[in-house]
C-alpha cells in the first residue's frame, strides 16, 4: 500500500485482522519492510502488523535526499494518523530503534509496548560523525555495491554467511537497491540524531530489548545500558546472531517477540 505523508509517497504493508492489536515495525539502515517478513508471518494470526518503508528506502520516495531522524518520526506519526491508530506496539531495529526511541520521547502516549532491537540511545560521538561523513562521501562516488561489500561483514555474524545465505543475499539486494543519495542522506541523518538516553527513565510502556550475541555495531553493552535506563525493561540476548538478529536467528527472535507482545498487547 502507498500513501502520501509529509509530501512523499510512502510504502507500507498492513496485514491481519484490523480489529487485532496493532504492531508497527521500523526497519534499520539501509533496508526496508522486507527485512521483517518472518516476523510479519509469525505474528499474522494474532496481530495487525504494519511495516513501513522509511523515506528513501524500499518502495518509498527518495525525495530530496535530505533526511533527519525527526523527519522519519514525523512520517511514522503521519502514517499512524492516516491509519487512525491512536496507540500501538512498536518494534524498531538499529536505525529503526533510534526512530522508535525518539518517537516514544515525543509521543509517549501513542506506544503501548516497545521492542528495541540491536540499537542504542546514545548519539554518535565525534569519531562516529566523521566516519559517517566519510562513508556518505564515498557512497556517492563508489555506489551502493561497494558500500554493501563493506557493510555486510559488519552487520552479519561471521557464521551467518554459511548458516543463512538467503538472509545475507536478501540484505545485499536491499542495500544495492537503495539509491546512493538515500544512503548518504540517511548516514547524515544518523550522524545528526539526538541522544535519547536522558529520557529513558520516563518510559512507562513495557519494553523488551533484543540484541544478537555477536552484534558488534550495537553490542550487548549498549543493550544493557538501555535496560539500565528503562524502568522494568527486559533484555534478551539472541544466540547465534549479529546485528540483524531477526534475520540471523528468526526462530529465537520470533519466540521472544511473540511472547512479549502476547503478554503486553493492547487494543
Ligand atoms: C542500522 O543497522 O540501522 C545502522 O547500521 C545503524 C547505524 O549505523 O548506526
What would you say this structure looks like, in words?
With 267 residues, the protein is an alpha/beta fold. 45% of the residues lie in helices and 17% in strands. An 8-stranded mixed β-sheet has the order 1-2-4-3-5-6-7-8, with helices on both faces. The radius of gyration is 17 Å and the shape is globular. Bound molecules: D-malate (MLT). The site of D-malate (MLT) has 6 residues, from loops.
Blueprint of the fold:
Layout: E1 2-5, E2 8-15, E3 22-26, H1 37-43, E4 48-52, H2 69-82, E5 88-93, H3 95-106, E6 111-117, H4 126-155, H5 160-163, H6 165-176, H7 180-191, E7 207-212, H8 220-229, E8 234-238, H9 245-248, H10 250-263
Parallel strand pairs: 3-4, 3-5, 5-6, 6-7, 7-8
Antiparallel strand pairs: 1-2, 2-4
Helix pairs in contact: 1-10, 2-3, 4-6, 4-7
The structure holds D-malate (MLT).
List low-confidence stretches.
Answer: none
Average pLDDT, all residues: 97
Q: Based on Cα principal axes, name the global outline.
A: globular
Rg over CA atoms, rounded to whole Å, is: 17 Å
Tell me about the largest β-sheet: 8 strands, mixed
**How many distinct helices?**
10
> Helical amount among residues, as a percent range?
40-55%
Beta-strand level of the residues, as a percent range?
A: 15-25%
Number of strands: 8
**How far from one another are the termini?**
23 Å
Strand order of the largest sheet: 1-2-4-3-5-6-7-8
Amino acid at each position: 500500500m502507498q500513501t502520501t505523508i509529509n509530501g512523499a509517497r510512502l510504502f507500507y504493508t498492513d496485514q491481519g485482522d484490523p480489529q487485532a492489536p496493532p504492531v508497527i515495525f521500523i526497519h534499520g539502515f539501509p533496508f526496508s519492510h522486507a527485512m521483517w517478513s518472518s516476523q510479519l508471518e509469525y505474528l499474522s494470526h494474532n496481530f495487525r502488523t504494519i511495516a513501513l518503508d522509511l523515506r528513501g528506502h524500499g518502495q518509498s520516495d527518495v525525495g530530496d535526499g535530505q533526511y533527519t531522524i525527526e523527519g522519519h518520526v514525523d512520517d511514522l506519526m503521519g502514517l499512524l494518523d492516516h491509519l487512525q491508530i491512536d496507540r500501538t506496539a512498536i518494534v524498531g531495529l538499529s536505525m529503526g530503534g533510534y526512530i522508535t526511541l525518539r518517537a516514544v520521547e515525543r509521543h509517549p502516549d501513542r506506544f503501548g509496548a516497545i521492542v528495541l532491537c540491536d540499537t542504542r540511545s546514545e548519539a554518535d560521538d565525534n569519531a562516529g560523525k566523521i566516519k559517517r561523513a566519510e562513508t556518505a562521501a564515498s557512497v556517492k562516488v563508489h555506489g551502493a555495491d561497494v558500500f554493501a561489500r563493506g557493510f555486510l561483514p559488519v552487520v552479519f555474524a561471521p557464521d551467518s554467511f554459511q548458516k543463512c545465505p538467503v538472509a545475507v543475499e536478501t540484505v545485499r539486494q536491499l542495500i544495492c537497491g537503495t539509491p546512493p543519495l538515500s544512503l548518504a542522506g540517511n548516514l547524515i541523518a544518523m550522524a545528526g540524531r539526538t541522544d535519547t538516553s536522558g529520557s529513558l527513565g520516563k518510559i512507562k510502556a513495557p519494553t523488551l530489548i533484543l540484541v544478537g550475541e555477536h552484534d558488534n555495531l550495537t553490542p550487548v553493552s549498549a543493550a544493557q545500558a538501555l535496560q539500565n535506563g528503562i524502568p522494568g525493561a527486559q533484555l534478551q540476548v539472541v544466540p547465534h546472531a549479529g546485528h540483524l538478529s531477526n534475520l540471523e536467528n528468526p526462530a529465537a527472535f520470533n519466540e521472544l517477540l511473540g511472547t512479549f507482545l502476547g503478554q503486553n498487547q493492547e487494543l
